[in-house]
Amino acid sequence: MKILVVCGSGLGSSFILELNVKKALEVLGKDAEVTHTDLASAKAEKADIYLGAADIVNELAKDKGIIVSIVNMMSISEIKEKLEPLL
Amino acid sequence: MKGGLSLLTKLLTKDCIQLANFVRSWQEAIHLAASPLVQQHKIEQRYVEAIIQSIEHYGPYVVITPKVAIPHARPSDGVLELAISLLRLQKPVFFSPNQPVYLLIVLAAIDNASHLQVLADLALVLQEPDQIDDLIACQHADMIWEKIKQYTTKESTE
Q1: Which of A12, B54, B110, B134 is surrounded by the most beta carbons within 10 Å?
Q2: Residue B97 neighbours by CB distance under 10 Å
Q3: Assembly ipTM
Q4: Nearest residue of A to residue B98 by CA position?
Q5: Where do the domains of chain B lie, and which CATH numbers do they carry?
Q6: What is the 3-state secondary structure (H, E, C) of B40-92?
Q7: From residue B101, how far is each of A5, B49, B61, B131 by CA, in Å?
Q8: Considering the entire predicted model, what is its pTM?
Q9: Which residues of chain B have pLDDT under 50?
Q10: Which domains does chain A have, with CATH numbers?
Q11: Taking the C-alpha atoms of A32, A60, A17 and B8 in order, what is their torsion angle to the nearest 10 degrees?
């Protein structure tokens, strides 16, 4: 299972979100490979789940894989709820 | 790290913390929030324009959690030095009709790695909604700095 966290520049929001995705996985007791990148690179990278702010992940093609949009990137509970059924 | 200052408090010097009553637009908020970094030659003016263009293009994804935005662009957009600045608004600025923002934290990274500790420190501050509200309630730059110091040193001993 590979989770790619995406933001506009791949530098700020996606890294903080990656930290929180890892925390959420820990709470769920699940294991996955989590990395972060920018939108342009994400378009060319294969992953099982693409996760990011709605503005960003909605730019990814629908056939890419599972797309998860996060409203509050600091909310472990939101990330947990949205990831749990997918793992 | 025990007892020492977090990288965030080292970089976010008091002269990079500003308080304002209100601004007319999110663009104005970003210009104001980034102005200490421009004056101190840590970023070029074009970095500020790149941040605004990025938000106009992708939408307000920099609003990382309610009330808080972390505007940033790429190192190649005119960053001269790893730096961070903060603007606290008394009245919120709206990045979208349902996204009021009171705290803007401008990030300037020089590469893909050196700023990650700063972001990890920032996550310690922003993970608690109560801490965000406490920062918004601050009336002085000194108080904001002290609170960030408190939030980022208490867990660094883990």
Answers
A1: A12
A2: 6
A3: 0.82
A4: A71
A5: 7-153 (3.40.930.10)
A6: CCCECHHHHHHHHHHHHHHCCCCEEECEEECCECCHHHCECCCEEEEEEEEEE
A7: 23, 19, 12, 15
A8: 0.90
A9: 1, 155-158
A10: 2-74 (3.40.50.2300)
A11: 130
The token duo for A59 is: 């730019």
Q: Measured between CA atoms, how close is A57 to chain B, in angstroms?
A: 10
- Tokens 């730059």 belong to B141
Under 8 Å between Cβ of A69 and A80: no
Identify all chain B residues contacting A13, using CB atoms and an 8 Å cutoff: 61-62, 64, 70
Which stretches of A1-87 are DSSP H helices?
Answer: 13-28, 39-42, 54-57, 76-83
* Residue-wise pLDDT tens digits, B31-41: 999 999 999 99
B115 is catalytic: no
Rounded to whole angstroms, how far apart are CA atoms B117 and B94? 29
Q: Is the pLDDT of residue A21 over 60?
A: yes
